[in-house]
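FORM 12-B: Structure-to-Sequence Request
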């Protein structure tokens, strides 16, 4: 779990820029305060690394050199993440090839596996989260790779002078001149952000700076460009269960899920430091904590919430912690803390993400880092096991699928004419639209008309289908729920959930591990019969059944809440209204945003608060989406906002 940065020179200038590379790595020192500023270079490549150490703390330094006996320093590795099955891989490589290792860490098995099995052979064997770069000094080739789900980030950019790759975009920007980059703001990515509330992979808001996609690798030579090749394609084939929910087949599925999760948590507990667990009060995090405490009886669980009623799960989380016997820590976030952290949070993000739960997650990670260095969490369970309420939508809209096209269009027109807020309007509108156009993930705020009023240069061809159509094309013939799950893995999961998880924990030099996003857990989830996902009128039915003997009964069937934020109330009140208005007025985003339209939206939101925001006048998520972009623009484009970034307070060894 660290921060990597490298520059592949197009003209053998790596030795001339190694100091610049080392300096550029310093702006992400929060990712690795245990060791930062360690660099290596040859004529073609310069690498630097910031380490947050967990395994073989005293010896497994990076950049790491490894090679076979005839050339023991053939390869150079920088590696962000954890490979949990590294012990098994080391044993297998030693037995099959006589591979020798100089450390006890999890980096050398990656390089040794790369050497003996090749990139296509080693990647499917890795069980963990990772982004890595391997430089082959003999073939003069750089190989970049990311884990199957995109838990760990990897930015890449190729300019006239070379290619930069990094765990964080701010380090790429710091090397723009050295690489010959001209990273202006990408208007297409801005519109995608306002539609989706995150920047979809592989884009970033800067032209020419992209992310190597999840489940992909690339091989590039000096002077070449990075072209990703997919090695992992999640699939959810439709398979009905025979015999019903209590059949022997169904019960075997429940056992398989429980066994896979037990094994995953056991593997994710591997570390030479103390491991804690986030605990929101829902079934996912509670299941992970309940299994983790079997391996660490002194487990610490951490949760967060707000003082406003209805926006906190701290009581339920505390009950869950007590039920499993964990020591529990609570962090309550005040409105002032929420507001004050926004500039720093956006700086850590690199690209805007308009998910207000980022703020409590940031404080949750900050509190956790006072007690532990690693935490487990429940991300990924909803996407793998059918946990979102929206996955039930195909059931409610099934009657529309039997209507002829003209009848569906008529229903849609009737819905369009109905007043905002009238019962049945949304059903008619959604039922008239095909799934590929209707569903684009969980983050939906602006419709096209609202977006045209706010964006200066709205382009209809840059709407959500621009992003989702290629993903849907791979799932023709699947069931609608499976298609939605697949889409969420390539959009919401890796664009919002995993970005905020990585960036907010790394901002506090804390490692986050996600046992649900494990290849062995996925192996069970991908074959889950469709009618076991949403059976009995509930989501994640099979997972709930699998967890019946693992988590407390009062949590098992609770409605999902997560870390809700009282944003609608605060934007209409003294907590955030004045800050929001000042942010809009000060912003220099007129090239992209009609600030008068945003101010009008803010004032209407405030004016309608006393009425409970009737008829779609709750603009909080739309306003927040624009505000986060404005803060981002103020930091990375205008150079007007300068967040106060704390120095890591943990031991540093240069």
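FORM 12-B RESPONSE
SEQUENCE OUT:
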């Amino acid at each position: 779990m660290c921060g990597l940065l490298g520059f592949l020179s197009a003209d053998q200038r790596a030795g001339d820029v190694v100091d610049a590379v080392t300096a550029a790595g310093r702006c992400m020192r929060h990712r690795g305060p245990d060791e930062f500023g360690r660099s290596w270079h040859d004529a073609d490549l310069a690498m630097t690394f910031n380490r947050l150490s967990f395994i073989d703390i005293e010896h497994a330094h990076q950049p790491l050199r490894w090679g076979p006996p005839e050339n023991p320093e053939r390869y150079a590795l920088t590696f962000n993440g954890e490979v949990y099955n590294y012990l098994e891989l080391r044993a297998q490589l030693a037995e099959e090839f006589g591979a020798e290792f100089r450390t006890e860490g999890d980096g050398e098995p990656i390089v040794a596996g790369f050497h003996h099995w090749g990139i296509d052979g080693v990647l499917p064997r890795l069980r963990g989260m990772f982004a890595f770069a391997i430089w082959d000094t003999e073939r003069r080739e750089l190989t970049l790779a990311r884990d199957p789900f995109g838990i760990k980030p990897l930015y890449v950019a190729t300019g006239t002078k070379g290619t930069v790759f990094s765990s964080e975009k701010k380090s790429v920007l710091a090397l723009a001149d050295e690489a010959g980059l001209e990273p202006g703001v990408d208007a297409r990515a801005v519109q995608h952000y306002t539609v989706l509330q995150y920047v979809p992979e592989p884009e970033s808001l800067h032209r020419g700076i992209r992310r190597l996609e999840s489940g992909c690798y690339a091989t590039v030579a000096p002077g070449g460009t990075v072209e990703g090749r997919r090695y992992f394609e999640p699939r959810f084939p439709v398979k009905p269960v025979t015999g019903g929910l209590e059949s022997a087949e169904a019960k075997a599925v429940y056992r398989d899920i429980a066994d896979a999760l037990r094994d995953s948590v056991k593997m994710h507990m591997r570390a030479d430091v103390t491991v804690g667990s986030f605990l929101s009060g829902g079934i996912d995090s509670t299941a992970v904590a309940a299994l983790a405490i079997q391996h660490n009886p002194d487990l610490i669980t951490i949760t967060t919430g707000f003082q406003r009623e209805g926006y906190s799960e701290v009581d339920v989380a505390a009950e869950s912690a007590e039920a499993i016997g964990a020591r529990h820590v609570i962090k309550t976030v005040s409105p002032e803390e929420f507001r004050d952290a926004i500039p720093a949070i956006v700086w850590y993000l690199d690209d805007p993400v308009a998910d207000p739960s980022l703020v409590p997650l940031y404080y949750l990670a900050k509190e956790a880092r006072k007690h532990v260095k690693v935490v487990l969490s429940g991300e990924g369970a909803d996407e793998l096991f059918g946990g979102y309420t929206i996955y039930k939508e195909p059931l409610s809209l099934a009657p529309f699928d039997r209507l002829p096209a003209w009848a569906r269009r008529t229903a849609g027109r009737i819905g369009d004419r109905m007043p905002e807020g009238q019962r049945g309007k949304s059903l008619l509108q959604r039922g008239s639209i095909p799934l590929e156009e209707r569903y684009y993930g969980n983050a939906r705020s602006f419709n096209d008309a609202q977006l045209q009023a706010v964006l200066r240069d709205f382009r209809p061809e840059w709407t959500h289908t621009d992003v989702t159509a290629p993903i849907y094309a791979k799932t023709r013939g699947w069931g609608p729920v499976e298609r939605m799950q697949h889409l969420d893995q390539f959009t919401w999961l890796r664009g919002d959930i995993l970005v905020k998880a990585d960036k907010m924990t790394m901002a506090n030099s804390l490692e986050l591990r996600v046992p649900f996003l494990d290849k062995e857990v996925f192996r069970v989830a991908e074959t889950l019969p469709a009618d076991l996902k949403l059976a009995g009128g509930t989501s994640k039915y099979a997972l709930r059944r699998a967890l019946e003997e693992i988590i407390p009964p009062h949590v098992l069937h609770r409605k999902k809440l997560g870390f809700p934020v009282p944003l609608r109330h605060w934007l209409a009140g003294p907590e955030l209204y004045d800050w929001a208005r000042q942010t809009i007025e000060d912003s220099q985003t007129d090239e992209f945003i009609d600030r008068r339209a945003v101010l009008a939206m803010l004032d209407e939101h405030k004016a309608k608060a006393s009425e409970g925001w009737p008829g779609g006048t709750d603009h909080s998520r739309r306003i927040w989406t624009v505000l986060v972009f404005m803060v981002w623009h103020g930091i990375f484009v205008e150079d007007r906002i300068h967040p106060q970034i704390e120095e890591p307070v943990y031991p540093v060894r240069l």
